[in-house]
């Protein structure tokens, strides 16, 4: 059996969940998707364009880092 290596989406999703629970994860995933729908529309046919994937990951990464900063601030 091959061992699964988490990808960046897995890592960011786990971080969002750890930092803010299910509600935060759902909120930022929805916001990231809405951003991508506006900037990088995709009809759902074929592979998701790499620019869209990259934008989604970048949005999530930023949201996770902002939440981490907010939690660390006094």
Name its key features.
74 residues, mainly alpha
Gist of the model:
The protein is mostly helical. It has helices at residues 8-39, 50-72.
Write the layout of secondary structure elements.
Elements: H1 8-39, H2 50-72
Helix pairs in contact: 1-2
Distance between the termini: 46 Å
Query: Low-confidence parts, pLDDT < 50 over ≥5 residues?
Result: none
Number of domains: 1
Total strands: 0
Radius of gyration: 14 Å
Estimate the global geometry from the Cα principal axes.
globular
Number of helical regions: 2
Strand content: under 5%
Major sheet: none
Question: Which range best describes the helical content: under 10%, 10-25%, 25-40%, 40-55%, 55-70% or over 70%?
Answer: over 70%
- State mean pLDDT (0 to 100 scale): 94
Give an account of the 3D structure.
With 74 residues, this protein is mainly alpha-helical. It has one domain. The chain is 74% helix and 0% strand. The protein has two helices and no strands. The radius of gyration is 14 Å and the shape is globular. The mean pLDDT is 94.
């Amino acid at each position: 059996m091959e061992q699964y290596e988490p990808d960046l989406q897995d890592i960011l999703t786990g971080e969002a969940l750890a930092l803010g629970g299910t509600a935060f994860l759902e909120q930022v995933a929805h916001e990231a998707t809405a951003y991508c729908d506006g900037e990088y529309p995709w009809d759902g046919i074929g592979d998701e364009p790499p620019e869209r994937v990259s934008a989604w990951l970048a949005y999530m990464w930023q949201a996770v880092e902002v939440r981490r900063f907010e939690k660390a601030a006094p």
